[in-house]
Amino acid sequence: MSDRVVPATFAQPVPKPATTLIIAQPQGYGYEVCVAVRGVANRDRDAAAALLLTGIAQNRWRDSLGIDRNAVTAILNYIVGHSAHNIGGVFVFNATRLTATDAAQAEAKAMATIKTLAANITAAEVEAAKNVHLAALQSLPGVSLLIANRLIEAETYGAEIADRQRLTRNVTLADVQRVARNLFVNAPVARVFVGDAAMLKTELARACDANVQVVAFTPEIGVQSMKAAPNQATTTPAATPSPAKRRTFSFPPPSRP
């Protein structure tokens, strides 16, 4: 309150350890993992640097997993992206179509990559990311499926392709290093797995990750129930109202001119 003096001994409460979320699906669907931190907004001055940072992070992540950059089938399963919105954004490491062991390893390597990116990025990596991104921007006008999306972005954010190219060329090594520190140093990290919960919990236990929360999922019903980790309360989903109690709405017929 503004009418009180904050005590000199005041301190923020100790944050709870981050929970690893598992969306349980039966065996046979494969495994997927997503590691995410907060990103930057589309209009932020660091949006272009954050986009280049995704290419650097993706190369380091794949290299740490021993994935050949020319192996098209393998690299499509390991993608790093940055989704920038009008307010905020999300920086994501996403791996799909894996085994339980590979999913746990991909998550561990993603966390290690985040730490290394916060510490050191080289000028060669920035220049290589620039070349790849500029080449992609030059090919966009010829892709008919992306024309509508680019027009919408230009109207919403005022970002033409020429502007994106200019901003990309102007990004410096210091810019990318600053964005990496802002995004990754002491940042809360969200970790989500999809697959067989028992197998994933076994793999995560080997990595000393016991703070796990499991959510049961079925394609027909969606998120059905929540199995809390030890010392956590169990949440019971609300009952679906019967058809007789559901409220219905109808629009009036359109009037003719």
Q: Would you kindly provide a written description of the structure presented here, covering whatever features stand out?
A:
- This protein has a seven-stranded mixed beta sheet with strand order 3-4-2-5-1-6-7.
- It is 41% helix and 19% strand.
- It has helices spanning 47-64, 72-75, 100-119, 123-139, 144-157, 161-170, 173-184, 197-206, and strands at residues 20-24, 31-38, 78-84, 89-98, 190-195, 212-218, 222-227.
- The protein starts with 19 loop residues before the first strand and ends in a 30-residue tail after the last strand.
- It has a domain at 31-194: Metalloenzyme, LuxS/M16 peptidase-like (Cytochrome Bc1 Complex, Chain A, domain 1, 2-Layer Sandwich).
- It is built from eight helices and seven strands.
- Helix 1 crosses helix 3 and helix 4 (123-139) runs antiparallel to helix 6 (161-170).
- With 257 residues, the chain is an alpha/beta fold.
Write out key terms for the chains shown.
Cytochrome Bc1 Complex, Chain A, domain 1; 257 residues; alpha/beta
Task: Describe the protein's topology.
Elements: E1 20-24, E2 31-38, H1 47-64, H2 72-75, E3 78-84, E4 89-98, H3 100-119, H4 123-139, H5 144-157, H6 161-170, H7 173-184, E5 190-195, H8 197-206, E6 212-218, E7 222-227
Parallel strand pairs: 1-5, 1-6
Antiparallel strand pairs: 2-4, 2-5, 3-4, 6-7
Helix pairs in contact: 1-3, 1-4, 1-7, 3-7, 3-8, 4-6
Q: Per DSSP, what share of the residues sits in E-state strands of 2 or more residues? A: 15-25%
Mean pLDDT: 79
Q: CATH H-level name of the domain at 31-194... which superfamily?
A: Metalloenzyme, LuxS/M16 peptidase-like
CATH class of the domain at 31-194: Alpha Beta
Radius of gyration based on Cα positions: 23 Å
Distance between the termini: 59 Å
